[in-house]
Amino acid sequence: MRCLGLMSGTSADGVDAVLADFRGSPNHPQWELIRHVHSPYPEGLRHRVVSAGQGETGCAEQWLDLAEAITEAQAKAARSCDPSGEAVLIGCHGQTVWHRPPTSRQRGASWQLLQAPLLAQLLERPVVHDFRAADLALGGQGAPLVPRADAALLGGTTGWRALLNLGGIANLTLIPPCCGPERDAPVQGWDCGPANSLIDLAVQQFSNGTLHFDRGGTMAKAGQSDETSIRRWLQEPYFQSPPPKSTGRELFGRANLQQRLNNLGQGCSNHDAVATLTSFSAAVVAQDLDQLMQRDQIRPLELIVAGGGRHNPVLMDQLQRRCRGLHLSSSQEIGLPVEAREALVFALLAWWHQRNHPANAPSITGARREAVLGVVVNPG
């Protein structure tokens, strides 16, 4: 069955679209990635999306206009990836503008902007959307939803396999070995913290909006990281909390960046600040892997990296230096383009919905039980 997956993440740089074919067992599907297209957001739309994710207020009409613009951008990406309409089903995550994990005092909620009936009408095909709601209703975090799909798509190896996505937020998947005493262990996964979100915001601020990200790690390479500040930041509650946990721009956004820049002080140059934030993103992942070893005696054999941060050589060097003893590789090496992974996952989640197959994992989100995820809408 051919499905189209659409994903726009925390970085808000545009929509990734993947056309894929799935067949066989839902737990261990045979799959083929047919085509991947990245469709950038127009600059004005990107600015509006980032501002919405920072808690900027607006009237009802502005929110309605933004949801419609996001939907039209999703449709454009879908047409670019699947111009002849081969996909019979579309899985669309929508654009997260606010994510609120559950606490002891408040249930969790998450808001992905999308007009799914309009998208189904524009593309003249069924659309599965609103993937987080069922897990949240069961007391889960609603995220990350990628780890169980990772395990189905990639399978295990002789030891624990770790996959790291470096988008706006860094998230980890831990896939148990395919053999041995741990082969029946549950898949694990969580959001580590910021990957590119703080780096990108800092570069935009320092360049007065002329740059959107640190291309090639140029600014970080020219600076010196402040290890004392990094060690202090790693003691913050989010980084010391065990999974399940999920996060986004509502925690690691502009206000958080300003707080960290204030911590660094006036004597810190722009290059040093970007270098420190880049090293911090790597240190967050390394600490999580160390805590995993202390907590569960799990040490993965390899760390497969996907997402836009894979293209930042300074971030990759920092990961290699701080994740001692791990072999780092790119998801490209196992046939999965670094920017295509999450869109492929949402194509799979749409297929799973059609097969009535559960897609969340209580070991990851903390939900009370498994559930079929997503809501399907058909064109009129």
Which CATH class of the largest domain is shown? Alpha Beta
Find the count of extended strands (DSSP E, 2+ residues).
12
Please name the CATH architecture of the largest domain: 2-Layer Sandwich
The radius of gyration is 20 Å
Look at the structure and give the mean pLDDT: 95
Name some characteristics of this structure:
single chain, 380 residues, Nucleotidyltransferase, domain 5, 2 domains, 7-stranded mixed β-sheet, 12 strands, 38% helix, globular
List the helices and strands and how they pair.
Layout: E1 2-8, E2 14-24, E3 29-40, H1 43-53, H2 60-81, E4 89-100, E5 109-113, H3 116-123, E6 127-129, H4 133-137, H5 146-154, E7 161-166, E8 169-175, E9 188-194, H6 197-206, H7 218-221, H8 227-233, H9 237-240, H10 254-264, H11 270-296, E10 302-306, H12 313-322, E11 327-330, H13 341-354, H14 362-365, E12 375-377
